[in-house]
Design a protein that fits this description.
It is built from nine helices and 13 strands. By secondary structure, the chain is an alpha/beta fold. The protein has three domains: about 1-30, no CATH class; about 30-250, Carbon-nitrogen hydrolase (Nitrilase/N-carbamoyl-D-aminoacid amidohydrolase); about 255-330. The strands form three sheets. It has a six-stranded mixed beta sheet with strand order 5-4-3-2-1-10. The protein has a four-stranded mixed beta sheet with strand order 6-7-8-9, covered by helices on one side. About 40% of the residues are buried.
């Protein structure tokens, strides 16, 4: 009966909206995406599709579509393709590549970051386009530090933040890796994940940015997805060559030992079955930080910290920077 009602609903949608692909209609029911309400924290499934920069457009677009089918069937919430993955022939937004990718985003109810060479009037940019779960263009990021010889215009729009239904993300591209101010701006924007479509792997600087600024980094060069601890994740699914899938808990957060010891002790005593210390000061890592995570469905570590007036490490650093700089300008003591 339930199936029959769903079928009637599909017919009504078709009548009101015009022809709809059957796969589009059934995608939300068929795709095994995370049921976040039944999980602790705030979890999201990401995919890095590392099929390389450039190449022949039709062949690479076909390969990308195959990978997006795989990601979608694995319940991915957001998939990212590499820098200019379908070649360097410029096109507008929307254009042939974004339209082809948007069909997969809509079919599998997932976000896709689709990097292209963009034709914007008489200018060309290295642009990563964010496509939402409905297949709509939700935004774009134009590469700020274009690599020598690309022959492209440089962005004047700066680092951007994109609000999704699972959290806040930013995108930086390839050569942007070398300019720390961009990564600090992502921190200032309070992002949960930075996606990094690239023509190469990136290496240890990415790990350094992740621990310094306490966000996840999803590099799409070599697929070395990086935790907020600065370590490359080991628990990564590889459903096909050059595709890397990981589940990230965006609720996990650090807090500093400063001014928080009594508050943390009280919180842990009163919520021992809801939150735990995943990591603390140790010989391996001398940073005086706790790393908290929720361990029961429906519980948020960040909300518990707020309840006990415990600043996250990022909040503490941001507030300290602002207040100390304010005192500096006024010539006051701290």
């Amino acid at each position: 009966m339930r199936t029959f009602i769903a079928y009637l609903a599909c017919l009504l949608i078709a009548a009101l909206a015009g022809p709809v692909c059957p796969q589009d209609v059934w995608a939300a029911e068929a795709v095994p995406q995370l049921d976040r309400e039944k999980l602790p924290g705030r979890q999201v499934k990401v995919a890095a599709i590392c099929i390389g920069f450039g190449g022949k457009r039709e062949a690479k677009l076909k390969l990308a579509i195959e990978h997006l089918h795989t990601a979608g069937k694995n319940g991915v919430d957001i998939a990212c393709l590499p820098e200019e993955f379908a070649g360097t022939e410029a096109e507008p937004i929307p254009g042939p590549t974004t339209k082809a990718v948007a069909k997969l985003a809509r079919q599998y109810n997932m976000y896709v970051i689709c990097p292209i060479r963009e034709q914007a009037g008489d200018k060309q940019y290295n642009t990563a386009v964010l496509i939402d779960r409905k297949g709509r263009v939700a935004g774009y990021y134009r590469k700020i530090f274009v690599f020598w010889g690309e022959g492209l215009h440089v962005s004047t729009e700066g680092v951007k933040i994109f609000e999704t239904d699972f959290g806040r993300i930013s995108i930086l591209t390839c050569f942007d890796l070398n300019f720390a101010k961009l990564w600090r701006q992502c921190d200032a924007l309070d992002v949960d994940i930075v996606f990094w479509p690239s023509a190469y792997g990136g290496g240890s600087p990415l790990n350094a940015y992740a621990i310094l600024y306490h966000y996840y980094i999803v590099p799409v060069g070599a697929g070395n997805i990086i935790d907020i601890t600065g370590k490359t994740l080991e628990n990564v699914e590889k459903p096909r060559p050059k595709q890397f899938i990981a589940t990230l808990d965006l609720d996990r957060t650090f807090a500093h030992h400063d001014f928080n010891r009594k508050k943390v002790k009280k919180m842990l005593a009163e919520h021992s079955d809801e939150i735990e210390v995943e990591r603390n000061l140790s010989d391996e890592d001398l940073a005086p930080w706790w790393l908290f995570k929720a361990v029961r469905p429906g519980v948020s570590a960040r909300e518990l910290l707020k309840k006990y007036e415990i600043e996250t490490l990022r909040e503490y650093q941001h507030r300290s920077r602002k207040q100390i700089n304010k005192a500096r300008k006024k010539g006051k003591r701290i």
